[in-house]
Specification:
- Helix content is about 40%, strand content about 15%.
- The chain is an alpha/beta fold and about 525 residues long.
- A hairpin with a 5-residue loop joins strand 14 (about 375-380) and strand 15.
């Protein structure tokens, strides 16, 4: 299962590539801004890109070689971007793995330091252009309000979400089907509570539904027609609205309180204890005698919570029906913006786009993420591919033979990931792919100015602290949810500026570039 992490896990790494204004005989310079490793798991920051076989492969394909200068911390790279924007440091020709925020992208472009790539894409980056044309929401997400495409994204069609996982083994023992509504889920949770589901002789050690804080629980709000982001906002037909003060949210919180009162929710959920329990469970999961304790939980993959040996007992729970409809919040989306840009100092942007366009193909994805065909992986006769190395070697290759594709310009199609010849990985990818058909971003990816973002951050601080705390109190029964307390909750949310928050994002949406403009 560790092979799966080579495809699906998220590492945040960053770099900036600088080339001379013409491709001279000497190697162009790549400034590699890598995040300092917060733990030993961040292997790429511990390797030298001069000897990385990925860049050697790219040199063989394109004839372009680089010399590297590395940043060793996020702070250093963030400071460097600030200095470049202020004109205190010379601009590179190309940003690669740059983690440009929407505000930085706008600022660099408006300062004339980054160019509009749109006029070049169809001719010099046809794979990128085809992807954007085929997916209008991606095209809109990477387009600035004036239509310029300044930064290219990382695209992953199977980015892990905060998925609901349910114990299929327990359902089979109960001879119950997979729940499809809030009412059916409630009844399943009652059975999980009342029966010795893990068959260890005790009826009080199972946790019907486990969660960590209101953040997890809000992913259940889809059962009441709510699909909102972390700002509690949603977009429908071009209109931005908030969900906190809606009757649907009140009904949702009332239902959660009923679950909590009946002992169907993790009693430790609001104390975030599951994180400790999960770490303990995962570390001991090599014990084949380990028994499951969770009926339903949230996570990117089941092994993240229950470990490898118990993960096969769980399947992804399809979104629950609400008025005959199914929708589930897409937390991360397909796109990670701001990974690649070209500065106005570059004399030949066409060649740089031709270089990066390869990374938006299945072959380019494998070269970056998996390695070299015949050495690091092989194709099977049935059209699947498999690692030619052990799981330990695959992990060790990150930063030597390959490079983490998250936050770098790339395209990880669902198809190429599903072609991996590993039963456990394929089964999990199939689960993620099935649920993904109902996933939808609550809000489109928009561009705010730095001033707008500063105000949103200020508003969010007050709104989030109050709303998350008060909603947790409603669920746990610390404050009774009635007409009076609900009116007070709504009034306080309004007083903290939720309407101004809506207005800022509505303005950003109205000013955004849309295909129908």
């Amino acid at each position: 299962m560790r092979k799966l992490l080579a495809i699906l896990q998220i590492f945040v790494l960053m770099a900036v590539m600088a080339l001379p204004t013409a491709f001279a005989a000497e190697a162009p310079i790549m400034l590699a801004g890598l995040e300092a490793a917060s733990s030993s798991s961040s292997t790429e920051a511990q390797h030298d890109w001069d000897t990385n076989l990925f860049f050697q492969t790219m040199q063989e394909k394109t004839g372009i070689a680089f010399s590297f200068t590395e940043y060793v911390s996020r702070e250093a790279w963030t400071e460097a971007k600030t200095e470049m924007l202020a004109g205190e440091v010379a601009m590179p020709d190309m940003f690669f793995k740059a983690e440009l925020t929407p505000q930085e992208t706008l600022a660099f472009y408006e300062a004339g330091k980054l160019i509009d790539l749109r006029p070049y894409l169809a001719e010099y980056a046809p794979h990128v252009w085809a992807l954007l044309e085929a997916n209008p929401e991606w095209m809109e997400a990477v387009s600035l309000p004036d239509g310029a495409i300044v930064a290219l994204p990382s695209i992953n069609e199977l980015t892990p979400n905060n998925t609901m996982w349910i114990n299929k083994t327990w359902l089979d023992r109960l001879k119950m089907g997979v729940p499809t509504t809030a009412e059916e889920l409630t009844e399943v949770l009652r059975q999980f509570r009342d029966r010795d589901m893990n068959q260890n002789g005790s009826r009080n050690d199972e946790i019907p539904l486990s969660f960590v804080s209101m953040w997890d629980l809000r992913f259940l709000a889809h059962a009441f027609g709510i699909n909102a982001d972390d700002y509690y906002l949603t977009e429908q037909n071009g209109k931005i609205s908030e969900v906190l003060t809606t009757e649907e949210n009140r009904a949702f919180l009332t239902w959660l309180h009923e679950l909590y009162t009946e002992g169907l929710l993790d009693s430790q959920g609001f104390m975030a204890m599951r994180l400790v329990e999960a770490a303990t469970s995962s570390s001991s999961s090599s014990n084949s005698n380990a028994t499951a304790k969770y009926g339903v939980f949230f996570g990117a993959t089941p092994q993240d919570v229950v470990g490898v040996n118990l993960a096969s007992e769980y399947i992804a729970l399809d979104p629950l029906l609400y008025n005959g409809q199914q929708v589930y919040r897409d937390f991360t989306g397909d796109l990670y913006r701001g990974t690649f840009a070209i500065s106005s100092t570059c004399a030949e942007p066409e060649k740089l786009l031709q270089w990066v366009d390869y990374l938006y193909t299945d072959e380019g994805f494998l070269a970056a993420q998996v390695g070299r065909e015949g050495e690091d992986y092989d194709w099977n006769d049935d059209g699947t591919w498999a690692y030619a190395r052990t799981a330990e070697e695959v992990v060790a290759m990150q930063g030597t033979n390959t490079i983490w594709t998250t936050s770098m310009p790339s395209y990880a199609s669902a198809e190429i990931q599903m072609k991996m010849d590993d039963d456990a990985t394929h089964a999990l990818a199939a689960e993620l792919a099935r649920v993904r058909q109902w996933e939808k971003r609550a809000m489109p990816l928009l561009y705010l100015t730095q001033e707008q973002m500063n105000r949103v951050t200020e508003l969010q601080s007050g709104i989030s602290t109050y709303a998350e705390t008060r909603m947790a109190w409603f669920v746990a029964g610390d404050v009774e949810l009635n007409d009076e307390t609900w009116a007070d909750f709504c009034a306080q949310v309004k007083a903290l500026g939720i309407d101004e928050m809506v207005s800022i994002w509505q303005s950003a949406y109205d000013n955004a570039w849309h295909l129908d403009k």
